[in-house]
Design a protein that fits this description.
Blueprint: H1 8-15, E1 19-20, E2 28-29, E3 39-41, H2 42-49, H3 53-61, E4 78-80, H4 81-93, E5 94-96, H5 97-104, H6 108-116, E6 135-137, H7 139-150, E7 161-162, H8 163-169, H9 177-185, E8 189-193, E9 200-205, H10 212-218, H11 232-243, H12 250-254, H13 268-272, E10 275-277, H14 278-285, H15 289-298, E11 305-307, E12 315-319, H16 320-323, H17 333-336
Antiparallel strand pairs: 1-2, 3-4, 5-6, 7-8, 8-9, 10-12, 11-12
Length: 338
């Protein structure tokens, strides 16, 4: 580990025999001249341990680590190296909400939701309580991170069931419906957990930065074999639910819109891939709303159904195979038959 060499001002202070405090030991004068062997500066500690300056100060104030007086070192705060190393080991074993958020790109609410769902374990806050951080076991998160980096599905063996079915089996107080499903709908990923509700069993990665429902509609998600064709009325309900960014996926099953067995958001593409709204056709072909409708009507293509949207024009739903000749670029042939 690189330690900051003592500057001339620090060396002169050390030569003078000023006290430097070590964690868990009595004060003693250090007169060694040259590189500082038992301490690191705030700057080097931040670089080595990825702590913010504010956190280092708070840890020192809380007595978790110990530092010399800034006045004694001409404004250069110096921290006990062994105390930092011990703290680093503890941080390696337990990550704070902030650390998980930075490490995995999750919003902080998702970290709490993962804990509530049993995917990560909360551990001692002894070393982090002073900085207002909640510490979690990162064993499961290591698995999650490896999967994120691998950009591939992760199988841990044994049967896997959809996340929302697993959550439905948990006691009501442990159902993080809004948080977990916001995470799913945010476009981060979709995954299942095994029947005991405690471990990751399957993960299907989707691109970030785009709502999951949008990816389903676009056909960007590699879906499972689609279920039996649905009726237009069923499609309308699914369409409306997705447009509203519904958070309770179980609600779809309660409405009878999802078949029994393994279901994922990718399955919804099976329901949607036959259809397209006039609005989306217009976006792809630069049609205006009425003009596009009239063009299709002139070619004998009429909407299959109309979905009323409060405060907006009705969404006209067309069979994509009929509209296709007028929007050939809308469907990617490489993605169409996944």
């Amino acid at each position: 580990m690189r330690l900051l060499a003592a500057t001339s001002s620090v060396a002169s202070v050390l030569r003078a025999g000023l006290d430097c405090h070590r964690l868990g030991s009595s004060k003693r004068a250090r007169t060694k001249v040259g590189p500082v062997t038992g301490f690191v500066t705030q700057k080097s500690a931040v670089e080595v341990f990825s702590f913010s300056i504010l956190k280092l100060r708070q840890l020192a104030v809380a007595g978790v680590i110990e530092m010399t007086s800034p006045a004694q070192t001409h404004g250069l705060r110096m921290y006990d190296l062994k105390a930092l190393e011990a703290l680093r080991k503890e941080v390696d074993d337990a990550a704070s909400t902030y650390a998980l958020t930075r490490r995995l790109g999750f919003p902080s609410i998702a970290v709490g939701a993962l804990h509530e769902a049993g995917l990560i374990d909360r551990v001692s806050e002894a070393a982090t309580a002073s900085i207002g951080a909640i510490a979690y076991s990162i064993r499961s998160v290591d698995l999650l991170e490896a999967t994120l980096r691998a950009k591939a599905s992760l199988r841990t063996g044994g049967p896997s069931i959809p996340l929302w079915e697993s959550l439905a089996a948990l006691p009501m107080r442990h159902r993080p419906w809004p948080s977990i499903l916001q995470l799913l709908l945010s476009g981060r990923f979709a995954f299942g957990i095994d029947p005991d509700g405690r471990k990751l069993a399957d993960m299907i990665l989707v691109p970030t930065g785009m709502p999951l429902a949008r990816l389903v509609i676009d056909g960007s998600i590699r879906a499972m074999p689609p279920p039996a064709p649905c009726t237009i009325a069923t499609f309308e309900e699914i369409w409306t639910t997705i447009r509203a960014r519904a958070e309770n996926v179980a609600g779809l099953r309660e409405l009878g819109l999802l078949p029994e067995g393994t279901v994922s958001w990718g399955n919804l593409r099976g329901f949607l891939q036959r259809y397209v709204t006039l609005k989306e056709a217009n976006e792809r072909t630069s049609w205006r709303h009425m003009e596009g409708r009239n063009v299709l009507a002139r070619h004998g293509i009429h909407p299959l159904h109309t979905v009323e949207e409060k405060g907006r024009r009705p969404a006209l739903i067309y069979d994509r195979t009929e509209v296709g000749p007028f929007m050939a670029e809308w469907i990617d042939p490489d993605i169409q038959d996944v």
